[in-house]
Amino acid sequence: MGLTEITLQKLRMANLRLKMLLIIIVCTSLLIADKLSLHQPLSSAIFLPLHTNIEFFCVFVALCTFTVTWYSNLNNCCYYSFFIGLGLLAVGFIDLFHFYSYEGMPTIFAQPCPNQATLYHVIGRYIMAVVFLVSVYFYKKEWCYLNRFKYYFLAATLGLVGFVLVTVSYDAQIYPAMYTAQGLTQAKIICEYIIIGLLVAAVAGYLWLYKKYMDNYLQLIIATLTISIFSELCFISYEKVYDTTNLLGHIFRFASYILIYVAIFMNNVKKPYLALVEAREELASANDILEERVRQRTKDLQEANKRLSKAATHDYLTGAINRMEFSHRFSKMLENSKEESLHSVIALDFDSFKKINDTFGHAVGDECLKTFVKSAKEVVRPTDTVSRFGGDEFMILLPNTPWDGARVVGEKVRKRLAEVAEPPFTVSMGIAEWPKNGRKEKDLLAYADEALYLAKQNGKNRME
């Protein structure tokens, strides 16, 4: 018995809960292990290279993710991924400013100091949390009319980045102090808890989306946000800028960025590609089916045309050619005739056909007509023609056959009928020779009819 949709949904939700539990256990274990045994200050010579590499990787992934969303949204009316991409673009640049603001880094924008680095960090995390929370609303929504404003959105994002750079680097006092000589400030801790609250709300929103759409992509986003929460917990609890708790927070962020990129790549590149491959396979299958149907329809049409062509030239009951085709073949025969050519026609008529119909019924009469045509075709040459003119009246056209040859054919027909006719029946025949008895079709057929009439008068079952 197959799984119902409700059961399948419950299994998927249970699978997601198990994955979240695993992530929570691993992250919690690392955090507890750091607090209980690993937590210690690090020298700048150790911390800065690790921090720089992690931050550079996160910046690189953020910019790559933006690039994926930008180019995969060219003809897309859904701004969900594009919105996340713009957010990651802003966060990527702010993270770049963040790691260049650490003490010990070269001076690029302003003199590096812990407060500036922490400000960049908090602003970047705020933007990230807000972007993912708002993105819940954008999921599966389409606004095609916004396509014309894409570059304006990009300009606004870069404008925000420029504002953050200028204000933090050159006018940091407009923001609450995030780090002093005594360590993290109360404002920093409150901001981190607000960020965690935004992330928790985003997780709740994505859980709702997953329950509604059951999209595996959403599992990756939920995992990303969950790890980001643990990253923020580390950034609340570290005591010194260069310590293992701060480094662990950056490692969590490193893991979350990997999941972000994988999620966006899967949603914007892999999923459409697989859909395209599936569509191509379905199209190829449909094309094969269509071609097969076309072949079958063509075959049926050809057969129908053959039947129509045969119906236009043959009698539907007996299979003998009809009167019109007889005239056509007669004309062709005369076109190919030479001066010394002799042709014959045999006019045939059943003897007492009405009696057969009255005695045995019309169905038996029809069978007798078929028997006659079949018997006649068996004894004549392939170049000869058996034609039904109507009722029980037939005409046999014998090209290049003199009167004596026609008489031989007639006798063969009579002999064959005597062998196979059931019920027994006979035919009378009249022979006419071209050009002796008429050069035109109507004259020749008229002579054959007269000879047939004479055969009837002289006792039937004979030829004249």
Q: What is the total tally of β strands?
A: 6
* Main beta sheet strand tally, sense and closure: 4 strands, antiparallel
Strand order of the largest sheet: 4-5-3-6
Classify the beta-strand content into a percent band.
Answer: 5-15%
Roughly how many Å apart are the termini?
84 Å
- Structural category: alpha+beta
Any idea what the radius of gyration is?
49 Å
CATH architecture of the largest domain: Up-down Bundle
Spell the H/E element sequence. HHHHHEEHHHHEHHEEHEH
Number of helices: 13
| Helicity, as a percent range | 55-70%
For this structure, the quaternary state is: single chain
Q: Ranges with pLDDT <50 over ≥5 residues?
A: none
Quick one: overall form?
Answer: rod-shaped
Instruction: Classify the fold: give the CATH topology of the largest domain.
Output: Rhopdopsin 7-helix transmembrane proteins
What number of structural domains do the residues give?
2
- Mean pLDDT, to the nearest integer, reads 86
In CATH, what is the class of the largest domain? Mainly Alpha
